[in-house]
């Protein structure tokens, strides 16, 4: 059974940094494409970043480019989201998701494409 477990969230001042982790357990073939999404109350999940682990391909949402970096540690079966220059508008619950199809392209930005999610981790940025 595949499981995703996020960690690393917390409270940080504007301009600060946090690194989120998504630890993957289970069948690796179902978790080649991992994405980070965020959600605020009353709104749907929005795309932050994604990685195709077998090829090292990466995507970033427009509002995080240059501030966030997605990376992986294959030995630890973990994907990271390094967030810097955090802003109050980055406040949200951050979710790690897996697309078991492994496809890479336009669908990667769509949360409905992902069929497995972690429990989420809260990130709060104070002004």
Rounded average pLDDT? 96
Q: Low-confidence segments, ≥5 residues, pLDDT <50?
A: none
SS content category? mainly beta
Helix content: under 10%
Number of beta strands: 11
Q: Count of DSSP helices? A: 0
Which sequence of SSEs, written as H and E, runs from N to C? EEEEEEEEEEE
Strand content: over 45%
Task: Kindly report how far apart the N and C termini lie.
Answer: 41 Å
Q: Main sheet?
A: 7 strands, mixed
Rg from alpha-carbon coordinates: 13 Å
**Overall geometric form:** globular
Write down the oligomeric state: single chain
Structural features, described:
- With 127 residues, the chain is mainly β.
- Helix content is 0%, strand content 50%.
- It contains no helices and 11 strands.
- Strands 2, 4, 5, 6, 9, 10 and 11 form a 7-stranded mixed beta sheet that branches.
- A hairpin with a 4-residue loop joins strand 5 and strand 6 (57-60).
- It is globular and about 40 Å long.
